[in-house]
Design brief:
The chain is of the alpha+beta class. 24% of the residues lie in helices and 48% in strands. It has 2 helices and 6 strands, in the order H-E-E-H-E-E-E-E. The protein has helices spanning 3-19, 46-57; strands at residues 30-38, 44-45, 61-74, 77-88, 93-106, 109-116. The chain is globular. The mean pLDDT is 95.
């Protein structure tokens, strides 16, 4: 298994655990001081910060999956470009959001996760 596949497998499992709110399992994926940043929002620190963001996001939209366009590894970073699909709660509308996530790794743990997307459509 090459490095790109190994890192992407970690990301897929982590996102599944986040999506099913298995907060107690997340420490296996992240360094203790990991940072999570979405769009222009302030970074969230640690698993508690990630949980805080995800619980907030779930009050606005529910994620319904994505279509992957690109997976690339550069040095210690995994870059994943997707089109994400959400159900917006305020008007029951299906929305589509282009998104690029960059996961920076320290060994096999995520130390920095940045989501490049315009989430203003969530409201």
């Amino acid at each position: 298994m090459d490095d790109t596949t190994k890192l992407f497998d970690i990301v897929k499992q982590m996102e599944e655990d986040v999506g099913t709110e298995k907060w107690e399992t997340l420490q296996q994926y992240f360094t203790p001081t990991f940072s999570y940043k979405v769009g222009s929002l302030e970074p969230k620190i640690g698993i508690e910060g990630l949980k805080e963001y995800m619980l907030w996001q779930n009050t606005l939209v529910h994620w319904k999956g994505h279509e992957i366009h690109l997976i690339a590894k550069v040095d210690n970073a995994l870059i994943v470009e997707v089109t994400s699909f959400f159900h917006r709660l305020v008007d029951n509308k299906r929305i589509t959001l282009p998104c690029t996530d960059i996961y920076r790794f320290d060994d096999l743990k995520i130390t920095d996760w940045r989501v490049y997307a315009d989430i203003s459509i969530f409201k």
